[in-house]
Amino acid sequence: MVGELRYREFRVPLGPGLHAYPDELVRQRVGHDGHPEYQIRWLVLRRGEDGEGGSGQVDCKAEHILLWMSDDEVYANCHKMLGEDGRVIGPSREPAEAGALDQSVLGEMEADVKSLIQRALRQLEECVGTVPPAPLLHTVHVLSAYASIEPLTGVFKDPRVLDLLMHMLSSPDYQIRWSAGRMIQALSSHDAGEEEHGEEGRAGEGLGLLRDSKDTVPGASALIRTRTQILLSLSQQEAIEKHLDFDSRCALLALFAQATLSEHPMSFEGIQLPQVPGRLLFSLVKRYLHVTSLLDQLNDSAVEPGGQNNPVAEDPSGDRARLELEFSLAMGTLISELVQAMRWDWASRRPGSVARSPFSIFQPQPADASLGHPPAQAQLSFRRSRRFRPRSEFASGNTYALYVRDMLQPGMRVRMLEDYEEISVGDEGEFRQSNNGVPPVQVLWESTGRTYWVHWHMLEILGFEEDIEDVVPAEEYQGAVASRALGGALPSWRWKPMAELCAVPYALPEEEDEEESEHLTQAEWWELLFFIRKLDASDHQEVLQTLQENLEGEILDDEILAELVVPIELAQDLLLALPQRLDESALRDLLNCHVYRKYGPEALAGQPAYPSFLEAQQDVLLLKAQAQAPESEDTATVKGREAPSQKPSSALQPLVEGLGPAGKVLVDLEQALHSEGDRDGEVKLCLLQLQRQPQPFLVLMRSLDTPATNKALHLTTLRILMPLVDFAEALLLPWHEAMDACMTCLRSPNTDREVLQELIFFLHRLASASRDYAVVLNQLGARDAISKALEKHLGKLELAQELRDMVFKCEKHAHLYRKLTTNILGGCVQMVLGQIEDHRRTRRPINTPFFDVFLRYLCQGSSADVKEDTCWEKVEVSSNPHRASKLMDRNPRTYWESSGSAGSHYITLHMRPGVLIRQLTVLVAGEDSSYMPARLVVCGGDSTNSLNTELNAVNVMPCASRVTLLENLTRFWPVIQIRVKRCQQGGVDTRIRGLEVLGPGPTVWPAFREQLCRHTRLFYMVRAQAWSQDIAEDRRSLLHLSSRLNGTLRQEQNFADHFLPDDEAAQALGKTCWEALVSPLVQNITSPDEDGISPLGWLLNQYLECREAAHNPQSRAAAFSSRVRRLTHLLVHVEPCEAAPQPRGRDRSRDWSALATRGLPSSIMKNLTRCWRAVVEEQVNNFLTSYWQDNDFVPRYCERFYNLHKSSSELFGPRAAFLLALQKGCAGALQRLPFLRAAHVSEQFARHIDQRIQGSRIGGARGMEMLAQLQRCLETALTFSGLEIATTFEHYYQHYMADRLLGVGSSWLEGAVLEQIGLCFPNRLPQQMLQSLSSADELQRQFHVYQLQRLDQELLKLEDTEKKIQVGLKASSQACRAEPEASGAAAATDGAAGEEEEESEDLDYEGALPEVSVLVLSPRCWPVASIGHMLNPRTCLPSFLRGTLNRYSNFYNKSQSHPALERGTQRQLQWTWLGRAELRFGDQTLHVSTVQMWLLLQLDGLEAASTESLSALSGLPMDMLNQAIGPLTSPRGPLDLQQQKDVPGGMLKIRDFSEEPRPRRGDVWLLPPQTHLKADEEGRNLEKRRNLLNCLIVRILKAHGDEGLHIDQLVCLVLEAWQKGPCPPRGLVSSLGRGAACGSTDVLSCILHLLGKGTLKRHDARPQMLSYAVPVTVMEPHTESLNPGSSGPNPPLTFHTLQIRSRGVPYASCTGTQSFSTFR
């Protein structure tokens, strides 16, 4: 087996370490659609963690699953079952080996067998009632010997063999019964090997090839197995139970268990199944065999024509319809009896259909979304405010937040409306204070015992205590919270489109046929027909007659009944009449079935179909029992002598009153049993009533489970039950259902000895009357209980030892009963799973009656009512283990106290297998003070060594007494540990006063969930593989995938809605379906093929190409696009499970039984986003390759990005994952660009943004259009963030921004643009430029104050001087003393004049001084074309401007030398030609640059000037000068340029406007246009810098070897080497200016570039460590120092420009010649 498994080419993961492999083709048939189907046996094997490589250990006892598969599925999944031509190899049918006996000898032996059979039958008839003679035993012995000979098997198929075996099994003699068993075993030995090969694997289909006894005719049973035929035939005998005693029945049941009931792949370990008596168990076996035989006949009826098993039938379709009906009705009968045997119908408190809240079973429901299911500790009512308005009354969250802020006062009570970090929705607290922080509100929360900050909109104001109403219904509050939290509170990140197709693609309501809506469905009709067949012959014939009259007199046979179409009105009439004609058992089934709940009288009246199952059934059945009870003459005589009123004994009075009218039967029974005379008839009448309505009898027996103080009640009960055992009718009562009450009384140490003795007498008599109940006592552990009772009472209990021995002898039978019960339940589950599989495969409805009832009870796991139970096996504590028992003694006055260091205390619970904790609570006491715990942490794990999963952390308030730690876990944790992390008041040791664990009783739901998910996963993963194969062969079939998936998911959704009322079961099914079908499909369709294109990627590319053509709804492109959208909507319908955070107090783990591989929803999303990213990257790369040089590249690229963004929303909705994939795809395409091409693209983007910002200043419609284009461009440019292209984009944007700010000034738009695309600037140079402007404005303001202070000082000095002069005139008589003082003043004046000579150059200016603004710009962020283009104010500016500049220079120098402003090296001012000015020229205002202003002022008063002389005077290069002259000489400019041969460059003169008809007025903008940067040259220089940095990085890492460097250390070393070591050549410095100096951002960008190329590598253990990986091919250019001869950095320079404004009216020339005046 292991060797074969190494070469398996396909496996299906069913769980961790669990895989399924196709093993064998079992059979073949024609499917419902006419195509062949193959039944494949899949082996389910467990492998270790190393099983991936094929060498892991394989469990020898492999389980299996039988699965019907189509041709395509076999071709895609089972390659070894295909022939060379690709066709499926049919099942092999090896002929049986011929016997070695001669034919003549074989004939003689067959004659002997026939005579022996005849002789044995005659001898059995002769010895009836006597001891069997020896000849009979010898005859049977010889027959057994003949039966062991395989060639004689056919002789034993004679019907007389069944009669013989029946007589032998019914014989009272043990030897004859034993001989019958030997004969059956001998007959079954022939197909033992065949069973081992095939029958054990037929759990889903039944118990092998079976036939009903009606079909055992000669020639029709050629392939019938002898053993199963005999067993089935015996089981179908009429009233066989009446002829079998306990031993015979056990012998036959043992044969059933050994021969037919094979091991099913279901484990009910840890689940206490109810004790089923042998009589009821035998009936279940009969039903089970009958169902499996019909199921096998159904399979054989569909065998492919020409096969060996093809039965010849005249009408195959009619015969199959009859078989389907018979199978469905038989399955319904089996389910009905099984439900009663398991006591599910009585144990359930919700017998009716439980309406499950409508939701998609494929979408994970957040834990806080199910507000309709509050936790166990949740309050049933909530308080609300009388004064303050709730959130639902506000239109927006902002409005509500303002309302809360204005109304909330300290001390008010508030409630949380949504989960926020540590605070949960519904938590209440007291408002303390608020501030301007984030979050702004401080509340003292009761749930945590401390304050926590939240936001305004998260609170609901309750007010002060007088403002709060007492209670409001929980449903009302929860609905309000849900509407607020999910409605108008905050925009949900979860996509919920308005269209129903997108919201729930598969849940579209199907169009209902009006004709079909007026009739019962086939499933409903078959369920109704099930009860019609339960009627007596007369009632059955009457119902058929009614049907014929209403259906036009058509003759109804079985075939017509199966296909009958019944109107709803007729069905309602039948349902109204059926309850009066059915027996009690069938009536209970009728009241619980689907068709009655839907069309019954209660449903028509608008009342719940099952208001109270027990109470309603009591009344109905009691009335029927009284009406139908036969009355004999003796009974009538007894009734005539009855007293007019009967009263029960005082002990029974509470029971009778609690039962109501149904308790009268107990009174009658007590009176009949204890009265004098023969009252057997009355007792039998009471027993008949109790058989029909056993509830009073069960209540009477369960009264033994009451406390021992009720001695009188116990004795009265036992004295009633004791004589009942003597009646044969009493043995039919359900004693086994209340036998646990007897065991409780037997085990109780407080039971009175008299009661105990009576109980033993009763149990002994009951076990003697029917040994079935001795088996039940053995299953309940009565042997140990009796032994303990004997020890306690020193053996002085009569019949106790006899009872113990009787119970002990039934040990073997108890094991047999348990095995049969398990196998029957497991077999039924497997058949149910087979029907579900057939429903999935054929899309045909499930017509089995009570199918929904059976599934409801199988799924009744986590939704079962919580009960307290012994959930743990043992409890361990960290210290003082002798006091651990105090945790479970239920005494709040005792406690366990720890001993040890703080934080080391814990309590460890070892849970029982399969127990899911509903509630874990610890009891504490505030009086313990510092011993009281303050913080508890709960962890879970598979063992004490793996307690790594933190399940919850709770802060304990000082006033708490009960602390809930865990609630509603969905996963079983074998070990739970409670850790005390902190005690109150800093205490060291702790005290815990109690420990309570609530958990549901073990149910079959976990086992059924495992099987359901396992079969579902196998079915859909096989189907996904087949669909993926079709898509791989033809990509166009991907268009049909949406309809396929939609139909499949809709089918599963409808199945869950109809048959799975439990939310947990529905979600488990939906999760498994989605992960088994969609996840493999997504993985396959998103995996690239040999060409590097995935099928889904190809489809999305086609969608993008035909998107424009799809606008016509009548085109083929529109239909194609619609299919693609439907497919993508369906694939992304389920959000990742990780999107919703897990709440505290709940299990954060997943259940592996419904999950093959963890994290599948996120992997689906990951595959889809990766495919979309590849499609976007390919689209953008093709566009960049084709259009990167076009002039309109940026607008077209933005349009393409917008279309891709819109397509992403169309295909996947506004999900962040796909928007991120879109950005990553664009980024990937940009990264594939060569460096120079990427530099060109970034320059075009910077230029486009610059043009749109300047164009938006126009205003109006054109300005708004420019803003819209700018916004689209900014959204597109965001993809540069984090890429290498961001560095070049920042470089170009910096230059354009500098020209824009200095040319036209700053605006609000600059900051808005930087706020949106700030991430695209790694060095943050544009942001620093704006910050520099802000600092310059602040300096200008300070300079203005400085000028005013200087003016005040000048005026003050002037006043002082005038006073001194006046004093000197008065003292002229004292000349000898006046001379020294005058000379000193003059010296001082002269000195002052010398110091301020430069500042007073504009004092002689006669006109109004212009307003001058100076902008101090830092060269670290502002780009300067050349540091040599400096402005010399002394030579280039007029005197009225030089004074202001000189004063500013002095101001700046003084501010730099101020102690409070010193920051390292003192900065130097250098004046540049950058800036702008406003000049008055006649009636015009000219807006010019600083260079243009100087040109115009130079021509003021001159007739003409040559450009060469102007260039020599200013020191500016000719290209810069010509750039400024161009606008001035334009038609709008004031100058003319005349070209002369002897004057290079021409002559400039002022243009004469006197001849123009209209004078020029208004503002004229003559600023020189921005020159486009030379992207190629700039890009080459940037590439050189990157290459230099790459060389430095590689050189440094090479020197450090394999150990590598920390990334921070590497950046520091590179920067140090750049500044002190090899640096860029002078050409690079001259071209980039100070931009050649690199920073840490540039180094990091180069590091990321080298990591992407694989030149560098990260260490796996320490990702922050980098090392050299492979040699690089980057050529190192020649480098030299920026400052030869100096090792340190150059001193920082500060560039500044000026802005000039005038304060008055500019002067005008007196002559006709126009001149220029600078006023701004």
What can you see in these coordinates?
With 1720 residues, the chain is an alpha+beta fold. It is built from 61 helices and 33 strands. Strands 22, 23, 24, 28, 32 and 33 form a 6-stranded mixed beta sheet that branches. The N terminus and C terminus are likely disordered.
Strand content: 5-15%
Q: Looking at the structure, what is the overall shape?
A: elongated
Global structural class: alpha+beta
End-to-end C-alpha gap: 97 Å
Rg from Cα: 49 Å
Largest sheet: 6 strands, mixed
Number of helices: 61
Counting copies of identical and different chains, the oligomeric state is single chain
Low-pLDDT segments, ≥5 res: 1-8, 48-60, 94-99, 191-227, 304-314, 348-354, 367-381, 472-503, 606-645, 862-868, 1137-1160, 1375-1397, ...
Query: How many β-strand stretches?
Result: 33
Helix content: 40-55%
> pLDDT average, as an integer?
74
Question: How are the SSEs placed, and which strands pair?
Answer:
Elements: H1 2-5, E1 12-15, E2 18-30, E3 36-46, E4 63-69, H2 71-77, H3 103-126, H4 134-147, H5 159-170, H6 174-188, H7 192-197, H8 226-235, H9 240-243, H10 246-259, H11 278-301, H12 316-341, H13 344-347, E5 381-382, H14 397-407, E6 413-416, E7 428-434, E8 441-445, E9 451-454, E10 459-463, E11 472-473, H15 474-488, H16 500-503, H17 514-517, H18 522-532, H19 537-550, H20 558-562, H21 568-577, H22 584-592, H23 594-599, H24 601-604, H25 613-628, H26 633-640, H27 653-659, H28 664-674, H29 680-692, H30 695-702, H31 711-724, H32 739-747, H33 753-769, H34 771-779, H35 782-792, H36 800-809, H37 811-842, H38 851-858, E12 872-877, E13 896-897, E14 905-911, E15 919-923, E16 933-941, E17 949-955, E18 962-967, E19 975-983, E20 991-992, E21 994-998, H39 1005-1033, H40 1041-1059, H41 1063-1085, H42 1095-1105, H43 1116-1131, H44 1160-1187, H45 1193-1212, H46 1216-1231, H47 1235-1255, H48 1260-1277, H49 1285-1304, H50 1308-1317, H51 1325-1370, H52 1375-1395, E22 1410-1417, H53 1433-1436, H54 1439-1457, E23 1469-1481, E24 1483-1489, H55 1490-1499, E25 1505-1506, ...
Parallel strand pairs: 23-32, 24-28
Antiparallel strand pairs: 1-2, 2-3, 3-4, 5-11, 6-7, 6-10, 7-8, 8-9, 12-14, 13-20, 14-19, 15-18, 15-21, 16-17, 16-19, 22-32, 23-24, 23-33, 25-27, 26-27, 29-31, 30-31
Helix pairs in contact: 2-39, 3-4, 3-5, 4-6, 5-6, 6-8, 6-10, 10-11, 10-37, 11-12, 11-37, 12-18, 28-29, 31-33, 33-34, 33-36, 34-37, 35-36, 37-39, 39-41, 40-41, 40-43, 41-44, 42-44, 44-45, 44-46, 45-46, 45-48, 47-48, 47-49, 47-58, 58-59, 58-61
